[in-house]
Design a protein that fits this description.
By secondary structure, the protein is an alpha/beta fold. It has 14 helices and 19 strands. The protein is globular and about 65 Å long.
């Protein structure tokens, strides 16, 4: 029986499992990896059922290397049971650590950097042919050529598609490792972006989410220069595109045409994720954020004046080196003024290789956690109030599919990126439809609504 099972396993199509950490850019890279490997691998539901395991890493938050090596320990154990299993490591930690990963872990067969996704099939082939562990982490001058669209297994019931418009970053914020792990900023050609949008729409996407480390500086490095607003208008003209989102814009690159676009193009979602990081000018300067509190608040005021129903979300770091209680209070003050719909907040942790890592980390961990707790409590109160303001109002809901927690509910999102659960299940509902619904109640993070037609 064992021999028969082994034979069945050998004859079965190969399968790949990808574990993804980090931001939407990493999620996009994972989608591309599935597409690149589609000719030889189908998607596996777990590492235990895969012939190939890829770990797509993130180095933005605290101790990412620890998470990686803990997972590689599990892979080493899995390999003792299945020696033919192949393991690859990609993403930002892979770009940063390179050869050191294969030296530290015998479980790793190959390492590929953030600009080397297209090399993965060749790395697998060389390793399978008996070569030693492979490492490819070189940056490219040209944009890496990747297949358009996504793998069949990755597109099931997808109404929203990530499209990368640029790679890397030139801002050099003192706390951020992205310029090191993803290289200098480079805009993708507009024609290539538009082709990928058309493919995504053909495959069922109704919402396009544009990705870039500083997404609104797209086009500044092209010859001749092009405007981000121009790109958005071109995408809006594509038949089948109902909504356009983008993340994350940088306050330094916001111009008048940005406000005009959001006000006048109804395909642009009424949601902007505008990173703040700190409400203190002194800390913003130490962070090298290239804007100050007054400039940031001016942008928010203009957005809310032009589009009153807009939702604003943000990123905030507490406990940055040198942050005093007064600096922290300045951040809380900005939160109260803006009333963010939600925020992603983190306690500062130094990333090796950044300028901030060389600064004196003088805010005790206990104090960082206290400030984080105070900030998050304030944000929870504001979020609850903001969600309750939607009760009784009608919203357009782009449907994602049945709720993962209750099959009698259908789930979707408003233009403000608020999750909406439809209380009335209608068998005619399908993912990708846009319906009108009236909000009946608000929970901690979501809205509940009923169809109005």
């Amino acid at each position: 029986m064992a021999a028969a099972n082994g034979k069945d396993r050998a004859e079965a199509p190969k399968r790949v499992y990808i574990r993804t950490f980090g931001c939407q850019m990493n999620e996009y890279d994972t989608q591309k990896l599935y597409r690149i490997l589609e000719p030889d691998y189908s998607a596996a539901p777990s590492a235990e059922e895969a012939d190939l395991v890829l770990i797509n890493t993130c180095s933005v938050r605290d101790k990412p290397e620890h998470k990686l090596y803990s997972l590689l320990g599990e892979m080493k154990e899995l390999k003792t049971q299945r020696p033919a299993l192949m393991v690859g490591v990609g993403g930002c930690v892979a770009q940063q650590e390179g050869q050191r990963i294969v030296k530290r872990s015998s479980a790793v067969d190959f390492v590929f950097g953030t600009q080397n996704l297209s090399l993965v099939p060749a790395l697998i082939k060389r390793r399978a042919a008996g070569a030693g562990p492979q490492v490819a982490v070189n940056f490219r001058e040209e944009w890496e050529e990747l297949p358009l669209g996504f793998a069949e297994a990755d597109l099931s019931n997808r109404t929203s598609a990530f499209i990368s418009v640029s790679r890397g970053c030139n801002k050099n914020c003192t706390y951020c490792i992205v310029p090191t792990t993803r290289g200098p900023e480079a805009s993708r050609a507009a024609d290539e972006i538009l082709r990928e949008v058309r493919v995504a729409v053909k495959r069922g996407a109704r919402e396009i989410v544009l990705l870039g480390q500083t997404v609104n500086s797209w086009g500044l490095d092209l010859a001749p220069r092009r405007k981000f607003s121009e790109l958005l208008n071109l995408i809006a003209e594509i038949e089948g595109v109902e909504r356009i989102r983008f993340t994350s814009p940088h306050p330094q690159e916001v111009r008048e045409d940005f406000f005009d676009l959001i006000q006048n193009n109804d395909k642009i979602c009424r949601h902007i994720h505008m990173p703040l990081q700190s409400g203190s000018d002194r800390i913003l300067k130490l962070m090298n954020r290239n804007y100050r509190r007054k400039r940031y608040l001016g942008i928010i005021h203009e957005l809310k004046t032009r589009v009153p129903e807009i939702a604003i979300t943000t990123d905030i770091i507490v406990g940055f080196p040198g942050e005093s209680e007064r600096d922290f209070e300045a951040t809380l003050e900005v939160i109260k003024i803006v009333e963010f719909d939600s925020s992603y907040s983190f306690a500062f942790s130094p990333r090796p290789g950044t300028v901030a890592a060389a600064m004196e980390d003088d805010v005790p961990r206990e104090e960082k956690l206290r400030r984080l707790q105070v900030l998050q409590l304030l944000q929870d109160q504001i979020t609850t109030r903001r969600l309750n303001q939607w009760v009784g109002r009608e919203v357009d809901v782009l449907l994602d599919g049945p709720s993962a927690f209750d099959s009698t509910l259908f789930q979707g999102r408003s233009s403000q990126n608020l999750m909406v659960n439809l209380l009335t299940h209608d068998p005619r509902l399908r993912a990708g439809m846009t319906v009108k619904a009236r909000v009946r109640e608000a929970s901690r993070f979501t809205l509940r609504a009923e169809l109005t037609v």
